[in-house]
Amino acid sequence: MASVQQKPSMVQRTRTVVMDVYNDTACLLFTLSFLISVGASIVVLGGLAAMTAFCWDNQPLGLGAGFKMTPSYAAKTMEVMRIEKAAVTSTEGSFQCDKFFRFDWFLWTFQVVWLMIVGLCWYRRTLRKYQSALWAMGATVTAWHFFKINYIISMDQWTMGELHTQGIITAGGLIFCCIGNFFMFLSGANYALTMPRRNELSGVAFPGMNGNSADGKSFNQPDSPHVPSDMA
């Protein structure tokens, strides 16, 4: 005799609705955080490219062309530029812009590569599996962002005109990169728990906290067929 399937109780239906809302909210927050980081990275690209171009267009002074030289700033500006140019001045006396900005471009590339890896894991639904490594990479690049923000702000009082504006744009983009990254850490930890575990090679899902497979179907196996006890 076939068993009668019972309808879910009110408690079960309420729990299902709450879990659905929780999962949707986690997905929304993670998506917004990811988009903020992507948009901020584009802003940093624009500001950094503009500063690099300004440096190349104003040789042999390089960035020195954008520093204040009024009497109240002249002495300090010359001291700042002496320190900054010491390591990046060529034998001909020109400002080596590529050498000066190499860390900045590496940091931006690190941010973009990290976002690409997060996006790939998100697409393949493997955030839960790799979240420890992902958040460790993100924390590293975010810490470097803070270092660079502090450096740009410390130079803000000495710069003027186009270089000053470009520095503010770059620092603003880095600040929003940090904001987006931090919210990805916070929302991503919960969002990853809504995803199933996967086998490393085959991509087969294993039961996780939500008990679902990769395609959202239940892992519960059908009942075994009835075997008579008086088998011949």
Automatic annotation (TrEMBL):
Region span, Disordered: 213-232
This protein's UniProt keywords: Membrane, Transmembrane, Transmembrane helix
Compositional bias ranges of the Polar residues kind: 213-223
TM helices/strands, residue ranges: 21-54, 105-123, 130-147, 167-193
Organism placement in taxonomy: Eukaryota, Viridiplantae, Chlorophyta, core chlorophytes, Trebouxiophyceae
Organism of derivation: Chlorella ohadii
Name of the featured protein: Uncharacterized protein
Domain of life: Eukaryota
